[in-house]
Amino acid sequence: SNAVPNFNKPKSKNASATLAIMATILACFFGGITFLSYYMGIVPNSHETVLSQIGVNVFGHGIVYYILQLSTAMILAVAANTGFSAFPILAYNLAKDKFLPHAYLDKGDRLGYSNGIISLAIGAMVLIGIFGGRTNSLIPLYAVGVFIPFTLSQSGMIIHWYRNRGKNWQIKSVINFIGAFISLALVTCLFLLRFPNVWPYLIVMPILLQIFYKIHHHYVRVAEQLRVVEDETEITATHHFDGATVIVLVSGVTRVTANAISYAQSIGDYVIAMHVSFDSNPEKEHKTSEQFKKEFPDVRFVDIH
What whole-number distance in Å separates Cα of residue 169 and Cα of residue 158? Predict the structure, then answer.
């Protein structure tokens, strides 16, 4: 759902079709694995996965079995990367709605939302450190984080169908109600049965929501300060500036530098040339300073080390 903005128009229709195809594939895989496990009498154990046991019973230890194992590993690798592809888009949408800093709107050198990826990586490292990398402790917390949004999204769709009341809205509402009820039941079971593993959710989420609303409030206040006054009766204070200081960054004395200084003098009353020096070649930096002062004796030269 976070990747809906990436679809071609009509976005919602294409996203729905893609989701339906994915759900069908998942249902076929799940149904097939469940049937084969029951038919062959396979039970989970700590030494071998269910898929591996099915593969041995169906294909033996031949090449097809290893292809199955390799395919499973590749699917798991893609699944592990899902968060790093979906969360940056989610962070982008939140930032666009002013619930996260606008830095999450920026793309990095690889045209990905780097700030979202970095934030997710840091959060993942923190969780691994807190729980010691124990998947038995992390999975219940992950499940709560999955099914609570499911419950909220399904409930939101019920409200959506009720407000629009389009074709067959009652049937669609019932379907979403069933989904919301199942998700809520799973969340309730997780809190009742695995509370020692999921209690951090009750602390972290309110804190995050408070941060989101604080950020949103900040952007709303900034927007109010920057908004052009529409009420003609309101008097807007004006400021008068006497003189203007123009700072020109200089890397060397060239024709470009001369043109930049000339333009700065045409728009400002006071021009400062600023040069950033590095200790790698002090003789060159000193030469640049002397050459600039010789060519532009009336311009102040500031050398920053």
Answer: 9
Give per-residue pLDDT as tens, 213-247.
999 999 999 888 766 555 544 545 555 556 688 89
* Residue 242 in tokens: 């006497």
For residue 271, the SS3 value is strand
Q: Give 10-59 as a DSSP string.
A: SHHHHHHHHHHHHHHHHHHHHHHHHHHHHHHT----SSS-HHHHHHHHHH
SS3 270: strand
Mean pLDDT of the region 183-203: 89
Report the C-alpha gap between 185 and 177 in whole angstroms: 12
Count of other CB atoms within 10 angstroms of residue 237: 4
Query: How many Cβ atoms from other residues are within 10 Å of residue 103's Cβ?
Result: 13
Delimit the domains of the chain by residue range.
1-60, 245-304
pLDDT tens digits for range 48-92 = 888 899 998 888 888 999 999 999 999 888 888 888 888 888 898
d(CA 271, CA 262): 10
- E-assigned strands of the chain? 245-249, 270-276, 300-304
Given a contact cutoff of 8 angstroms between Cβ atoms, the answer to whether 94 and 100 are in contact is yes
pLDDT at 177 over 90: yes
Indicate the DSSP class of residue 244. -
Looking at residue 222, its pLDDT comes to: 86
C-beta separation of 273 from 250 below 8 A: yes
Tokens 């003609």 correspond to what residue? 232
